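1st attempt posting a full record on here, be nice pls
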Amino acid sequence: MIVATDRISAFDVVLPDPIPYKGAVLTAFSVFWFDFLKDVVPNHLIATDVGAYPEPLPSYRDQLECRSMLVARTEVFPFECVARGYLAGSGWKEYRQTGEVCGIKLPPGLRESDKLDEPIFTPATKAETGHDLNVSEREMANSIGEEATSELKRLTLTLYSRAAEYADSRGIIIADTKFEFGTKDGKVILVDEALTPDSSRFWPKESYQAGRGQQSFDKQYLRDYLETVTWDKQPPGPNLPETVIARTSEKYLEAYRLMTGATVEGSGIRSQESGFRACTS
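the predicted structure (as tokens):
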């Protein structure tokens, strides 16, 4: 079972203040994308209806409803599979230092937030503690084999391109995202979350301009705020002002509404495309 709480992390530190509706939005996003991308690769989702969960889980409905997924257990590959269509975040930082991202040589003279000629595959290790570490495709292949690496790369770039094309039609740029995969009965399937504001950079298309940081629907707003306070990025994280909590919550809800065509009401959010309803209260 995966349960998405309203707690939020930044710089790999879980902050003390929850973000209202965050868990419901992350769950709804993943359910939407699992359905949208199921023709590309199967996924681990079994059910989201708490009433269909095995006992004794239905008795915990108040804690699980709208923020949980019953999923299949898999053997998970120990890598995050990252697709980048734009130069941002750790990719931008690495490019400035080396002219490369995860061993991939990029053209000189690129600016922050520039769109790449084509999306690139940049895996990262799944660290148990501390920060995930970007690695090259060769390092990944040395760990899990050439065949598995090639298949995960193909799936990652296909999923990203399909999602990015759809998002563009909704006025959102997916600058980058990460997927996780596992195997069940010898087949590769998509696991964990999918294309949420926590695993992706979502930028409003109308305000995009290369050469600078972008407005964002994801956690970058929160990260930007934390860069303005005195904090060494080590636990414990600082408390957040009410205004930052409220604005972060608004960004999560707005991203879901724009991406899926959801209606946002006091009692819940419902995607017009997928029919999934998630609580927001």
